[in-house]
C-alpha cells in the first residue's frame, strides 16, 4: 500500500529530531578506541537486539522474498559507514560532516527521474538558500588541502551511498515498516562490513566497558533513534524534502559544540542557522503547495 506523504509539520519536526541523534555519530566514532569500520560493525550488530522487542511476528511472516532481498540490498548503509567512519582518520570532523551531508545532490535528481517528484523553482531556491546557510556556518571550519583529499573523497563518496540508502528506504516504506527495514537490512549491512574488515582492519573485540560503551551509545542513539526515526519519516515526507533537511546536520553539530564544548555562538553562526532554517521553510511550503494542488 502506497504511503500518503503529506509533509506534515510533525514529521518535519521528527526528521530534525532524527538529525539531532544522527549528529552524535561523529562524536561516538571519535570516542571509540576500535578502528572505524569495526566501530560501524558493532554499531549495527548491537542495534539488532535493541530492535527485536519492537518486531511484529505477523509483519515478518507476510514479507515476500522479493521484499526481503530488496531490504538486504540496502547495503548502501554499509558502504556509507565504511567510508564515513574511515574519513575521520584522514580529514577534519568539520569537513567530514559537511561533505557527508551533501546527499541532496544525489537524492533530488534521482527522485525526479524515479519517483516523478516535482521540483518547482521555489523548492530549488529554498534548497539553494539552505546550502548557502550551511556554507556560511562552515566557512571558518572547513579547509580544503591536498593532505585531506583522501578523507574528503571518502566523505563525499559516503554521501552518495547514504543518498542511495535513503532512496531505497523511501521506496520500501510504501509496503514495509521502518522497524522491519532497519532489522533485516542490518544483516545485509553486517555481511558487507565483515567482508571489508576481513580484508582491511581485521576483527577487534571490545575488551572492557571503556571500549564497549561508545559502541552501545552509537547503536542506540545514532542507529536506532537516528536512522530508525529517519526511516520512519521517509514514509511520511517526500524524498527531496527529507534529504534537504538532512543537509542541516552541520547546524546541529554547531549546537552540540555550543552545549558540550562550550563554544560560543558568534554572529556568523546565528546568521547561518537563520539562513538554513529559512531555506528549509521555503522548500517545505513549496512541497506542501504541490501536495494541495495534486489533491484538488
- What is the percentage of strand-forming residues? under 5%
- Give the N-to-C terminal Cα separation: 22 Å
Provide the helix percentage. over 70%
Question: Strand count, sense and closure of the main sheet?
Answer: none
Number of E-type strands: 0
The helix-and-strand class reads mainly alpha
Mean pLDDT: 82
Shape: globular
Order of helices and strands: HHHHHHHHHHHHHHH
Number of helices in the DSSP assignment: 15
Low-confidence stretches: 291-296
Cα-atom radius of gyration: 19 Å
Could you give the topology of this structure?
Elements: H1 9-22, H2 25-31, H3 36-51, H4 57-62, H5 65-72, H6 76-87, H7 93-100, H8 104-114, H9 121-138, H10 149-172, H11 178-199, H12 209-233, H13 239-246, H14 249-260, H15 267-295
Helix pairs in contact: 1-12, 2-12, 3-6, 3-11, 3-12, 6-10, 6-11, 7-10, 8-10, 8-13, 9-15, 11-12
Structure description:
This protein has 296 residues and is mainly α. Helices cover 74% and strands 0% of the residues. It is built from 15 helices and no strands. The protein has helices spanning 9-22, 25-31, 36-51, 57-62, 65-72, 76-87, 93-100, 104-114, 121-138, 149-172, 178-199, 209-233, 239-246, 249-260, 267-295. Helix 6 (76-87) packs across helix 11. Residues 291-296 have low confidence and may be disordered.
